[in-house]
Write a structure and sequence with these properties.
homodimer; 5-stranded parallel sheet; Rossmann fold; 256 residues; alpha/beta; 44% helix; 4-stranded parallel sheet
Chain lengths: 256, 256
């Protein structure tokens, strides 16, 4: 793949969750500008079917064509699972999701292909089996998947710790007998409860999409950490002010 | 308002939840035919803003104009809270929501206007203050509201009892010192956990939208229980087969 000629990224997510990927991108200094589009009017994608996810993703692509972006990053795992090929086919800039980078991060961190890997994601992401497929392509045959559907609403309710989160984790994790070697946080919301998941499985390595994407972009496109400051532009299909409020908080941005 | 001339209802909901209202309508025998449209591609509405809810509702109205319906019933509380006036303005058949009927059901069941009333609903419904407003119009000044956002995903996960539901109820209800006289189940999903809510508040009268709508239609339009059988047609903006599967289960329908 040819190297990028300049440093403007379009980041697409179904809602605000993709800001957890933006956070890593901002810290990385790889881009001079990031244009974020959250499809907040139609969030969540994780319960929708393949054709709907592809259709919505192609609409987002049309939006990004209004800007001179160098790369489009689908921060949403459900988009990454179903729409990357379609997005790539219909654009003249590279498009990357978070699944391939996530699997490469597992490979870099664990080496031993006998490692046990727990994939956490939305129903749509898990159903696609894309993580499992890429892991197997890289020799990791010992993976298993859970779609903890209540994690997203629990995070959106701000319950990053406490009794509700504990009972929800217990509900989904009750059959797991020992800590997996790695846990893929395969949904943009899950990094917000990574502390609680890490305490539940103290011996597991957690894989974060944002960090994985930064590592991937550095390796794949030879990008350097050369920008001290990244300009941010935020767009949303509904309530852009709400998105900006969350962004200021999560990303510690100055008021735009 | 003029009485209905025939007995075909269009029932609109953001997803499958409105089937809990259809269940009551089927048992009532008020209609010869019910046409159900669930906007499953864009569910849930309860987190969307007013203008989006109105826009989506008017699109559903256009859909129903393809059928010769006599009345449109918005089973979704968020639609009932924001879009009834717009729907009524743009149609030549009557449109009813579930909020006004719900408040009339409170009035019929409690009489005493000093009764304490807990309104449960989505964020959008509670924010609209429509239940509170109609209750006050009917003399009930002692109401309070909670938006237990996790109830919908907990119901969609099928957790109608057990530890997760208990911890979630405790989270939202922990500050309530004594059983309210009535609890309005102001979201189509909540009747599915009415047993658990009833056990949590054993001295409260629960108000169910479906039963309230049936009572309202009988009183407002002098409708009789005269149809032994109601034909059902199901439409969905995504995955209509999924909607039909849920419908067969919830409504004990023969395969269509």
């Amino acid at each position: 793949m040819k190297p990028l000629h300049n440093m403007r990224a379009g980041v697409f997510d179904s809602g605000v969750g993709g800001l957890s990927v933006v956070k890593s991108l901002l810290e990385s200094g790889l881009f001079s500008e990031i244009i974020y589009f959250g499809d907040t009017a139609r969030v969540p994608y994780g319960v929708k079917d393949k054709n709907t996810i592809i259709r919505y993703s192609l609409e987002a692509l049309e939006f990004f064509k209004n800007f001179d972006i160098d790369i489009m990053i689908a921060a949403c795992n459900s988009v990454s699972a179903y729409a990357i090929d379609e997005l790539q086919k219909n654009s003249n800039f590279p498009v990357t999701g978070v699944i391939h980078p996530g699997v490469l991060a597992v490979k870099n961190k664990l080496q031993d292909t006998n490692s046990s890997i727990l994939i956490l994601g939305t129903k749509a992401t898990i159903k696609s089996q894309k993580y499992k497929f890429f892991l197997e392509e890289n020799g990791f045959l010992n993976s298993f998947s859970i779609a903890p559907s209540l994690f997203v609403p629990v995070v959106e309710e701000g319950l990053f710790s406490g009794e509700v989160l504990q009972s929800v984790m217990k509900h989904y994790f009750k059959d797991i007998k020992s800590d997996p070697d790695a846990i893929i946080l395969g949904c943009t919301h899950f990094p917000l409860i990574s502390d609680a998941i890490g305490k539940y499985f103290p011996n597991s390595t957690l894989i974060h999409s944002g960090d994985a994407v930064v590592e991937y972009l550095q390796n794949e496109y030879n990008l350097d950490k050369k920008f001290d400051k990244t300009d941010m532009k935020f767009f949303a299909s509904e309530n852009p002010d709400g998105l900006k409020r969350v962004a200021y908080e999560w990303l510690n941005l100055e008021k735009i």
